[in-house]
Amino acid sequence: MSDQTPGQHYLADALRTFRDYKTLAERAFAQTSDEDFFKTIDEESNSIAVNIKHMAGNMLSRWTDFLTTDGEKPERNRDIEFVMLPGATRDDMIAYWEKGWQCVFDTVEPLGPDDLMRTVTIRGQDHTVIQAINRQLAHYAYHTGQIVFLAKHFKSSDWQSLSVPRNPSAEFNARIQDPGR
């Protein structure tokens, strides 16, 4: 790490964090049945599928032509991202999710430290590239948390923890301190 500039470190960390959120959400929705994938907990909440649809729509809008066009594309219909259309399948949603994430990675991977202070626009507001990346990291973390919460709620006692399970924290910490244990 010490041979990286702060800008290189920031971009590498941002990419790692995007990948971590993607993986965390995928590990959560992999534990759900198709029924639970589309289920809501009440009339005002979103399903896992709707969260995926919204995140992918956001990704495609924000990251397509990132440095040259407003991140809120005129062709984006954000409101429809919160509606599950008849006939939508889990495979459709996962394919759309993958398309969104591919757009993120195809855009962020080539960025260099000299790009970080460039100005991009989102909904007519200027952001530095750093601010735009941070905005998206926070947005994806928010919805990833919703996906994990829903998957865990639906799976209940059959849930397989995605991090340190309840109660064995001391044992986990000891293993971290002494990997040979």
Précis, in short:
55% of the residues lie in helices and 4% in strands.
How would you sum up this structure, described in words?
The chain has helices at 6-29, 34-38, 48-63, 90-108, 129-155, 169-177, and strands at residues 119-122, 125-128. With 181 residues, it is mostly helical. Helix 1 packs parallel to helix 5 (129-155), helix 3 (48-63) runs parallel beside helix 4 and helix 3 (48-63) packs antiparallel against helix 5 (129-155). The protein is flat and about 50 Å long. The chain starts with 5 loop residues before the first helix and ends with a helix. The model has no long low-confidence stretch (mean pLDDT 92).
SSE map:
Elements: H1 6-29, H2 34-38, H3 48-63, H4 90-108, E1 119-122, E2 125-128, H5 129-155, H6 169-177
Antiparallel strand pairs: 1-2
Unreliable segments (pLDDT under 50, ≥5 consecutive)? none
Number of strands: 2
Shape: flat
Distance between the termini: 27 Å
Helix fraction by DSSP (H/I, runs of at least 4): 55-70%
- Count the helices. How many? 6
Please provide the ordered H/E string of secondary-structure elements. Answer: HHHHEEHH
- Largest beta-sheet characterization: 2 strands, antiparallel
Radius of gyration, CA atoms, in whole angstroms: 18 Å
Beta strand %: under 5%
What's the mean pLDDT score?
92
Which strand order spans the largest sheet, edge to edge or round the barrel?
1-2
Oligomer: single chain
Name the structural class.
mainly alpha
